[in-house]
Design goal:
- The complex is a heterodimer of chains A (about 270) and B (about 280).
- The C terminus of chain A is likely disordered.
- Chain A is α/β, with parallel strands linked by helices.
- Chain A has eleven helices and ten strands.
- The two termini of chain A are about 35 Å apart.
- Helix content of chain A is about 40%, strand content about 25%.
- Chain B has a domain of about 80 residues.
- Chain B contains ten helices and eleven strands.
- In chain B, the strands form two sheets. A six-stranded mixed beta sheet of chain B has the order 7-8-9-3-10-11, with helices on both faces.
- In chain B, helix 5 crosses helix 7 and helix 7 runs parallel beside helix 8.
- Chain B is globular, with a radius of gyration of 20 Å.
- Classes of the chains: A alpha/beta (about 270), B alpha/beta (about 280).
- At the A-B interface, helix 7, helix 8, helix 10 and helix 11 of A face helix 8, helix 9 and helix 10 of B.
């Protein structure tokens, strides 16, 4: 569904170039949930933004649904790749109703039966028609994220890019949103790319994952392998141990020494 | 447990809003000695407001009352503002979520640590600088001379939070309130900061109130856990016995967590029962 080859994204001027994404490649199969894991600044969100077409300056090859993708995209492509952002407080327009925000992509794409589509999209994310004319401030965090998901789904995309979709939410609400995402995918036809720093969420949702650090993919593996402890790269092992340590009832034992030893220092470019 | 440092009995906090009175905290009682107590709850459960009440750092629209709210033998509700200035930072330290916002962006971090020392311990610049430097070492910053001269935007999140910890511990308070101290940090950095915090609390014999939404984190880090729901403590239990929680809310929270080693088709979704608002609590 998605093939990325030798992707490089640089920020900054000539004498101070920082390579946020430093030559990565991966493939996502149709119908799969692919996870991208890493710490702040490792470039995982940048990869997602490139896939979404929000970051047009990059080097490398990109194929989505069998088509080579250039920096300029046509409407059909934009329709087939949609994104859900981390913070539902920031990604919805505060002064537009839910209805207006769901109508906008339909208008841009020139789709018919707008009212019906809005209703069905709201229904699909478990919000009734009563939510249609509400403003974001009248919604809870979980409801907002549902609206954001509805907005992404209303164009019936093939690929949904999820950038930390639940990290701004409480655990109980996170469970609802993750279940919703699983149901939508089960209903058919979607491929997910999920970015998260939470290995618990990744292990729950994904089939395969890539671990990123310093703009590079250091390991790509199946979730079963990760869970079975078959990760080979020391960084993956550290990440897993850190998540397990407090995640499943251990005591924090890591010292600054053990952690820093396995995380590479930023490269000077 | 020794003599409690902090005693909270029947704390109520309400906010005056244009839609009438909102009761954010409804009769919270607990004691904290020289131990690590976690307060867990969702957004809006009143956990942060409880922490702020102890420091008397509530917004003007809030009103707090309690049968008792005392630190040692000081009545925190009646203490003068002058007394509070000494208590805040001097006897009770507060570490907040994001060092980006809690550090002054235009003052070198070392000078901010030194300022805390001079404010609470007095002494000249040289002594303050020396203690600040020693404190930077205590939070395991490898090159304190260099870090001392940096501005907040030049340090990473983990480093910033260590600087916050250094600032707060320099005045040698007896009680520390940490409000989501590691939520803004990456997992591996989080562990680093926690182990530093843990070591300092153990060696100095401090009391800690650890406020967090993260049940797992609190379970691993604290001795005792208080679960808050809608302004009340609905359950209290030793951190090691969290698996045996009796309140359906606590059980629901535990079940809703995605886990690495326990793959499930669906996550359990919390069914909120209106009875929890005023129903039985388990303590």
């Amino acid at each position: 569904m998605i093939a990325v080859d030798d992707l490089v994204v640089s920020f900054g001027d000539d004498d101070e170039v920082k390579r946020a994404v430093d030559g990565i490649g991966f493939e996502v199969r149709e119908g799969e949930t692919f996870g991208l894991v890493g710490e702040s600044g490792c470039g995982k969100s940048t990869v997602l933004r490139v896939l979404a077409g929000l970051n047009p300056s990059y080097d490398g090859r990109l194929r989505i649904a069998g088509r080579d993708i250039g920096p300029r995209r046509d409407k059909a492509l934009m329709k087939s790749v949609q994104m859900v952002f981390q913070d539902p407080y920031g990604s919805l327009h505060p002064r537009q109703t839910v209805n207006a925000q769901l109508m906008e992509p339909l208008r841009i794409q020139g789709l018919d039966d707008a009212a019906g589509r809005v209703e069905r999209a709201l229904d699909a994310v478990g919000l009734g028609p009563a939510f249609r004319y509400r403003y974001p401030h009248q919604l809870s965090g979980g409801q907002r994220q549902r609206v954001a998901i509805a907005r992404a789904l209303i164009l019936e995309p093939d690929v949904l890019l999820l950038d930390e979709p639940t990290s701004a939410l409480d655990v109980s609400v996170q469970a609802e949103v993750l279940n919703l995402l699983a149901d939508l995918k089960a209903a058919g036809g979607l491929t997910y790319v999920l970015v998260s720093h939470d290995l618990g969420v990744i292990a729950h949702m994904c089939d395969r994952l890539a671990v990123m650090t310093e703009g590079r993919i250091v390991e790509e593996l199946d979730v079963q392998e990760l869970v079975a402890g078959a990760a080979r790269h020391p960084y993956t092992v550290t990440l897993l141990r850190a998540s397990e340590t407090y995640g499943e009832g251990g005591v924090p034992a890591a010292t600054s020494e053990t952690n820093e030893a396995t995380i590479p220092e930023p490269r000077k470019t | 447990m020794h003599e409690p440092l902090l005693r909270v009995d029947g704390l109520h906090v309400s906010f005056r809003t244009h839609r009438g009175l909102v009761n954010a905290v409804r009769g919270v009682s607990f004691e904290v000695g020289r131990e690590k107590v976690g307060i867990v709850g969702e957004s809006g459960s009143g956990k942060s407001i409880t922490g702020r009440s102890v420091m008397r750092l509530l917004p003007p629209a809030a009103e707090a009352r309690a049968n008792r709210l005392s630190f040692r033998d000081i009545d925190l509700l009646r203490a003068s503002e002058k007394q509070m200035l000494d208590i805040r930072g001097g006897q009770i330290g507060l570490i907040m979520q994001d060092p980006k916002y809690s550090l002054n962006p235009v003052v070198r971090v070392g000078d901010q640590i030194a300022e805390a020392y001079r404010l609470h311990r007095g002494g000249n610049r040289k002594a303050a600088r020396a203690s600040a430097m020693a404190m930077l070492e205590a939070v395991k910053i490898r090159d304190p001379e260099r870090v001392y001269r940096l501005y907040p935007h030049e340090v990473s999140g983990g480093m910033g939070q260590r600087i916050m910890i250094a600032t707060m511990l320099l005045a040698e308070p007896d009680l520390l309130i940490a409000d989501e101290p590691t939520s803004a940090l990456d997992v591996t950095v989080r562990l680093e900061v926690l182990s530093i915090l843990d070591e300092l609390i153990e060696t100095r014999g401090l009391g800690l109130i650890f406020i967090s939404h993260d049940l797992n984190l609190v379970r691993a880090f604290c001795d005792r856990v208080l679960i808050m729901y809608a302004g009340r403590i609905v359950e209290e239990l030793p951190a090691s016995e969290l698996e045996h929680a009796r309140h359906p809310y606590t059980q629901g929270l535990l079940a809703a967590l995605p886990r690495i080693h326990e793959r499930r088709e669906r996550l359990a979704v919390l069914q909120r029962d209106p009875d929890w608002l005023d129903g039985p609590t388990y303590r």
